[in-house]
Write a structure and sequence with these properties.
single chain, 259 residues, alpha/beta, Rossmann fold, five-stranded parallel sheet, four-stranded mixed sheet, globular
């Protein structure tokens, strides 16, 4: 993924930006202290993606203050995760925002045109896993990715998953989201030739231990190329998938193969 610093330097090289303009962008304040939060203004410069607001535990007023600081410093697209419906309503009175109830996620500035090297597939074991899946899918879309959703394709009815084999084989990254025993990640890891990001969910009966059983199963997957994020961490999976789908080396390789 290109950092904003590299994009700035390329713009200077290509004559789209003056040296003075580039210096102004790079030398801007690294963060803004608004009392209860230090808003990171250099996150995009360093990592390629601006700071994301974690909504749980913050009051709507605090989130509005953080959004104000971000917008004042030129951030056009802002993502708020784990946002309640009540909080979204209050923030929406101050800033135009689309709220996605199922994924508990708010997006200010709309979705960008996808610019990743391929497509991200988000698959769930069951319908109960969809809230985590939507957090992952919407995060990936907000970061500029084309996303295909395959919901309720768990291993209890394996024929459902196999009917989407073409989507699985064409994906550049797959996010496998499942509770219970979390077997979906291993099955997808055995079918796909791309990285599989496993997300254990807290869905399941007593011995699933609120997602711990799925987490341990996914960590012990015998399928190569499977990595695991934390329980119910759809955001982390969507973010990581976006980083993989924007790797410059992968893009260059794809271009060479197409020659």
């Amino acid at each position: 993924m290109k950092s904003e610093t590299k994009q700035i330097l390329e713009a200077v090289k290509n004559g789209r930006m003056s040296v003075e303009e580039a210096l102004l962008k790079i030398k801007s304040e690294p963060y803004e202290d608004i009392g209860y939060a230090k808003v990171d203004l250099h996150r995009k410069v360093q990592q390629g993606v601006s700071e994301v607001i974690y909504g749980a535990g913050k009051t709507p007023e605090q989130m509005i203050g953080i959004v104000d600081a971000m917008k004042k410093n030129g951030q056009e697209r802002i993502l708020i995760t784990r946002l309640s419906e009540e909080g979204a309503e209050i923030i929406g009175r101050r800033h135009a925002m689309s709220y996605h109830k199922e994924g508990r996620l708010g997006i200010l500035g709309g979705l960008p045109v996808p610019d990743g090297i391929g497509r991200i597939v988000v698959a769930t074991g069951g319908t109960s896993d969809i809230p985590v899946a939507e957090e992952a899918a919407l995060t990936a879309e907000a970061l500029g990715n084309d996303v295909t959703r395959l919901y309720d394709v768990g291993v209890a009815g394996l024929h459902r998953l196999l009917s989407y084999k073409e989507d699985i084989m064409e994906a550049s990254v797959i996010i496998a989201i499942a509770g219970m025993e979390g077997a979906l990640a291993s099955v997808l890891g055995g079918l796909a030739d791309c990285p599989v990001i496993a997300v254990p969910t807290s869905v399941g009966y007593g011995a699933s231990f609120h997602g711990l059983s799925a987490l341990l199963s996914m960590l012990n997957s015998c399928a190569s190329g499977v990595c695991v994020v934390n329980i119910d961490n759809g955001f982390g999976a969507g973010y990581l998938a976006s980083m993989i789908n924007h790797m410059e080396g992968s893009s260059s390789l794809a271009e060479k193969e197409g020659e």
